[in-house]
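Submission sheet (multi-component)
Chains listed below:
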Amino acid sequence: MGEAAWPSLPDCFFIRRGVILNLFKRLRRGNLGDNIFGFVVLLFGVSILVIMAGIVFQLWLQSAPSREKFGWSFLWSTAYDVQRQNYGAGVFIYGTLVTAFIALILAAPVGVGIAAYLVEIAPRRLNRVVGSMVELLAAVPSIVYGLWGFYALNPFLRDYIAPPLQAVLGWLPPFSGEFVGTSVFTASVVLAIMILPTVAAVSRDVLRAVPDAQREAMLALGATRWEMFSRAVLPYAKSGVLGAAILGLGRAAGETMAVTFIIGNNPQIFKSLFGQGATIASEIAAKWQEASGLTLPVLMELGLVLFAITIIINISARLLVMLLVRGPRGGLRA
Amino acid sequence: MSQLRRPMTGRFKRRRIMDRAMTFAAYACAALAIIPLTWIVIYVFVKGIGVWNARFFTQLPALFEAGGVRNGIFGTLEVVGLSAAIGVPVGVMAGIFLAEYGDNILGGTVRFTADTMTGVPSIVVGLFVYGVVVLNTGGAYSAFAGAVALAILMIPIITRTTEEMIRLVPNSIREASLALGVPRWKTILRVVLPTALSGIVTGVFLSVARVAGETAPLIMTIFGTYYAISKNIFDGPTTTLSLLIYKLGGAPNPEVVKVAWGASLLLILIVLGLSLLARLIFKGEGAKF
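Outcome: structure written.
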């Protein structure tokens, strides 16, 4: 480092000042590529909001003739008269809610049980196997559930499950009456199987989020595993497990093909679970290809109602789950 | 030593029995989940394998006798492939947005909307696409409309998995790249994305598997036909395996129903195969179920 290698001081200062000013100017402007990339990525992110808004807007637009003709009474009217062109959503809302709730009552205890098994009991290796099996249950296409439910499960329920149920609970209206070919009961059982993975996966995430200190404290007090789970883990995860169940309810309400295949698509307020019924989704799927004139907007408005129901269910469920697990995991598992 | 043992009486006994019973119940729940899956897979296999012959793969479906599902196989590949071409770029880009630029109110809104979107019934998406695509192309049912519907179903899934996978990439890798003077966009595309690639591909496969078996939104977008599929993807009804199962499965002729079982077997193999493949591709630690 000889003295001669250095330029004189003012010169050096001048050059450096220019370079630095230039650098600052460029920094303030930002890298052009960065700006473009950030903008493009932002557009794609916002496109999700656009699609969601578009769904609401389109259904609202397309259902205009139906909304104008029937007004708000569409929501509770149970009319279904093809001759007089008089339709209401009441029957279908009833069918959707009843089947979804029965499915939930059947699936929730089992789903939480699976989650408890996976989190508290199962050894690591078995954990993966059982977990994968439950996840594959979610992968079976809806229409295959329908076919299986119609040809395999329905006869099984009719011959082996319904008679004992009727023998014991036959005096109750829901369990009375004849088991017809296709039934609300079978549809609900299939729905329960279909939402089982959702309930199990979300409750598993929720239970796993419970801090181990909760468990250790309870075990240190001399509790058995069940006491530990029921008094230290479950109360802690209460809102999350409830959210998992409600998420399952939303799935069941929106499920289409399996129900269309099984429930019989008979628009009536069924009193017996062994009778036929119809849900919003099954009505849309079954009637679409023969829809014309006023039926098309009616189906669109039914879609709007279904959208509203599932959105309300879903948002409340997500908020409940979020209370416990920060940001529920996305994708198939949520 | 025997004095130190707690006597197995009264309260303690009751507690222990309760514990055993509940442990057993949890085992029973796990078993209960496995029964329907095995039942479905075996049932479909037994019913479906019988019709797998040359006719099944090369003929068109017939209404009153056993036919084939050639158009369904082509249609499924066509519609699902198209939907992946639309949905994967959008989903991955939206995922990048959420992971790298999404820690603000807008990001939070998009994230919540994407989560809610996974819960929108597929048939509602079908109605939406009917209004947007089918009615705007002169009421023409087409493979393209079906692909748009399936893409909308895929996007939120891909978005959320992509985000999750990109967030798993350690910050030190990003910082190392940025410190070398690489601009942020290049860092994301050339350093972050390749690191998260196996996870993202897994998400893509899982979402493709999910939509491949989808039926409901296709009724109002590609309609379903017994004839050969349209050569023009923007015009003319098409069909898929799932739609054929719906149509043939309800037929009165048992020979035709058998074809539906064969198609079900093929569809289940495709979907489960894709799901298993996704699991094999994923190299990360056991983040999966």
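Remark: Chain B has eleven helices and no strands.
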